[in-house]
Amino acid sequence: MTLSTPLRKVASKLMAKFGGEVTIRTVTAGAYNTTTGAITETVSDTAVRGVLEDVNAREVNELVQAGDKRLTIAAADTAAVPSTADRVVISNISHQVIRVVTIEQDNEPITYELILRA
Length: 118
What we know:
single chain, mainly beta, Thrombin, subunit H, 1 helix, 6 strands
């Protein structure tokens, strides 16, 4: 047994105890409509618990802006790895995922840190 298995369980328990409810909205591009010129989207929602905090001022750069948020979720609580095409709904406000950082142990994801922008 590797260290990653108990770490995944601990991360999930900590998020369940201290995290707030958020919805990960996985967005999949559908068919292109030649009449309207739009691409249809298919969404799938997953409710998870995560810890939300503001981005530090020292982290602001070309990609991360002041006012962005950081959401940490347990990797064990999600079926798929979040991507920048996905959205996160917190208190009925949809946030775009700007960046995804995976915290790993033995090549197993433990947590995901999502940088969000409203």
